[in-house]
Automatic annotation (TrEMBL):
Places the protein is found: Cell membrane
Coiled coil location: none
Name of this chain's protein: non-specific serine/threonine protein kinase
Species this protein is from: Lithospermum erythrorhizon (Purple gromwell)
Region named Disordered: 37-56, 363-383
Entry GO MF terms: ATP binding; protein serine/threonine kinase activity
Length: 427
């Protein structure tokens, strides 16, 4: 593995090594034979019979990786063909992400699996901190709606991360690339639920974790559109005991960061709830959180859309027209109601992510998502239909929700930040 730099890095890696000892014990039985093969290994590719030829095989093999693996730089150079340009999946603030395959040719005992290899940009301290944060959190947290960290590399000044490969890429691409087929209503609600479950898991962990950079580009989709949160570089351990918040330097992405966090640097789990509300609004409208190509009053999605979310007539007008005849008015009203409260200017008026999950689950049923009959859903707004949170009528919410919230969005001091790009300081 090589020298891993600072004392802080060594501590994180030592913690990670506690989890990989079992795997290394299994592979140690191959002894010198593995070392002898080091410089004669062939590069794994799709023509290799042990490499998964479909996503189902990959999913089954991914389950077998229960421990984080310490890879050598040589191994990761091998699977990416020395980080060849045609293997690039994407680039961000952290660095470049490459496609690769791990299997028996890389190390004895490894099951065939396509992976994404993230290479730290050596310039800048932020990348080093984010690398440590990702190893620390993803090395310990496992959930079906979090991208699995397969391994890492820490050699000299090289810092790399190896994740399971997500076959359908980011939610951002599926929502906003013109060449793609529009996501259906049912798929959008399924993605919203999966992402909500990921956040709820983080917030309810033994030591709560605040994700801090929830946005469409950080939600990756598996072959069956299962949503998984990726990029934990900005995640923070949440408040404990009598603490009400975590004070931190303002980091995030313009258009998604909660307004109180931008203004004060006070971070809570409700900051993530606001960001979730922005993404839910993007799913409902098919619009970007910030879009400079639109008329001035429509460029900030939250400012434009939130006042319409609790108006039955206007609400239906802002829903993505590509979703016509795919949802019931009842389902649309419930989803819009949820977005409305998630986007509250008052953090205490926002729901918990566990409440969000409970609200979204009924929208997965065929009756809620596919019933297009107006007669079956004509008594929605202000009607007697219970909202999932506390089984209370819509807009007559639990005491956490207040009805005097002013519409508005996050106004950053840096409005020129790319809304879909990497995380940047916004205040």
């Amino acid at each position: 593995m090589g020298n891993c730099g600072t004392r802080e890095e060594s501590a994180v890696i030592s913690n990670a090594h506690l989890q990989v000892q079992q795997f290394q014990g299994l592979s140690a039985s191959s002894g010198n034979s593995a070392l002898e093969k080091k410089h004669s290994r062939s590069i794994s590719n799709l023509s290799d019979p042990s490499t998964p030829h479909n996503s189902e095989d990959a999913r089954k093999n991914a389950v077998l990786y229960t421990h984080v693996i310490a890879f050598t730089l040589f191994e990761l150079e091998t699977i990416t063909k020395s980080f060849r340009s045609d293997y690039i999946l994407g680039e961000g603030g952290f660095g470049t992400v490459y496609k690769g395959y791990i299997d028996e040719n890389v190390r004895v005992g490894l099951k065939s699996l396509p992976v994404a290899v993230k290479v730290l940009n050596k310039e800048g301290l932020q990348g080093h901190r984010e690398w440590l944060t990702e190893v620390n959190f993803l090395g310990q947290l496992r959930h079906s709606n979090l991208v699995k960290l397969i391994g890492y590399c820490c050699e000299d000044d090289h810092r790399l991360l190896v994740y399971e490969f997500m076959f359908r890429g980011s939610l951002e691409n599926h929502l906003f690339r013109k060449a793609t087929i529009p996501l259906s209503w049912s798929t959008r609600m399924m993605i919203a639920l999966g992402a909500a479950k990921g956040l709820a898991f983080l917030h309810n962990a033994e030591r709560p974790v605040i994700y801090r950079d929830f946005k469409t580009s950080n939600i990756l989709l598996d072959s069956d559109y299962t949503a998984k949160l990726s990029d934990f570089g900005l995640a923070k351990a949440g408040p404990q005991g009598d603490e009400t918040h975590v004070s931190t330097r303002v980091m995030g992405t313009y258009g998604y960061a909660a307004p109180e966090y931008v203004m004060t640097g006070h971070l809570t789990a409700r900051s993530d709830v606001y960001s979730f509300g922005v993404v839910l609004l993007e799913l409902l409208t098919g619009r970007k959180s910030v879009d400079k190509t639109r008329p001035s009053k429509e460029q900030n999605l939250v400012d434009w859309a939130r006042p319409k979310l609790n108006d039955k007539r206007k609400m239906l007008q802002i829903i993505d027209p590509r979703l016509e005849n795919q949802y019931s008015v009842r389902a649309a009203q419930k989803a819009c109601s949820l977005a409305y409260y998630c986007l509250s200017q008052n953090p205490k008026a926002r729901p918990l992510m566990s409440d969000v999950v409970e609200t979204l689950e009924p929208l997965q049923s065929s009756g809620a998502g596919n019933d297009t009959s107006s007669s079956s859903s004509s008594t929605l707004v202000g009607g007697s239909s219970p909202f999932a949170m506390g089984r209370i009528p819509d807009y007559r919410m639990h005491h956490r929700f207040v009805s005097t919230v002013r519409p508005g969005g996050c106004r950053s001091l840096n409005p020129n930040c790319s809304p879909g790009g990497s995380a940047v300081r916004v205040g």
